[in-house]
C-alpha cells in the first residue's frame, strides 16, 4: 500500500465518521425532509459511496468518531453539525446533548465544547455561512 493510499484511507474514514455523526443528529429527533436533503448534499461533498451511504443510514453508530486533524476542519465539522440540527429550524434536547458530546469527540475540551455549543446556539437562529459563523463563534473570546 502506498503512502497516498494511506492518506486517502484516513480522509475517507474521517469523511464517513463525520457523515455518520450528521446522520445520528438527523435521526435523533426523527428524520425530516429538510435533513434528508442536506444529508444528500453532504454525501456528495464528503464523497460517500452509495454503499457507505446506505450502511451509514442503517447503522450510523457503527462508525466511530475519527476526529479531524486541524482546527479549521474542527470548526467546519461543528458548523456542519449545527446546519443539520437547524435544518428543521428546531433543536431537541437530545440534539443538544449530542452536539456537546460530538464537540468533545472532535477535539474540543469540555469547557470549549460547552462554550462553542452554547454560543453557536445563540448564533445559529438563522442560516450563516462558514465565514460569519467562524467570526461570531470566536468574537469576544
Stretches with pLDDT under 50, minimum 5 residues: 1-8
Radius of gyration: 15 Å
Q: How would you characterize the largest beta sheet? A: none
- The number of helical elements comes to 7
Helical coverage, percent range: over 70%
| Multimerization state | single chain
Rounded to the nearest angstrom, the distance between the terminal CA atoms is 44 Å
Q: Sketch the topology as an H/E string, one letter per element.
A: HHHHHHH
Count of discrete structural domains: 1
Strand content: under 5%
What's the shape?
globular
Total number of strands: 0
Report mean pLDDT, rounded to a whole number. 88
Assign the structural class, choosing from mainly alpha, mainly beta, alpha/beta, alpha+beta, or little secondary structure. mainly alpha
Overview of the molecule:
This protein is an all-alpha fold and 141 residues long. The protein has one domain (8-138). It contains seven helices and no strands. Helix 1 (3-28) packs parallel to helix 4 (71-85), helix 1 packs antiparallel against helix 5 (93-105) and helix 5 (93-105) crosses helix 6. The radius of gyration is 15 Å and the shape is globular.
Amino acid at each position: 500500500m502506498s503512502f497516498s493510499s494511506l492518506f486517502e484511507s484516513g480522509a475517507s474514514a474521517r469523511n464517513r465518521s463525520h457523515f455518520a455523526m450528521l446522520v445520528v443528529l438527523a435521526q435523533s429527533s426523527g428524520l425530516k425532509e429538510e435533513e434528508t436533503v442536506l444529508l444528500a448534499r453532504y454525501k456528495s461533498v464528503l464523497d460517500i459511496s452509495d454503499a457507505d451511504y446506505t450502511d451509514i443510514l442503517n447503522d450510523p453508530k457503527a462508525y466511530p468518531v475519527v476526529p479531524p486533524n486541524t482546527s479549521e476542519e474542527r470548526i467546519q465539522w461543528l458548523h456542519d453539525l449545527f446546519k443539520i440540527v437547524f435544518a428543521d429550524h428546531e433543536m431537541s434536547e437530545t440534539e443538544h446533548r449530542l452536539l456537546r458530546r460530538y464537540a468533545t469527540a472532535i477535539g474540543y475540551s469540555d469547557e470549549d465544547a460547552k462554550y462553542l455549543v452554547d454560543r453557536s446556539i445563540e448564533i445559529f437562529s438563522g442560516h450563516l455561512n462558514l465565514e460569519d459563523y467562524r467570526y461570531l463563534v470566536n468574537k469576544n473570546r
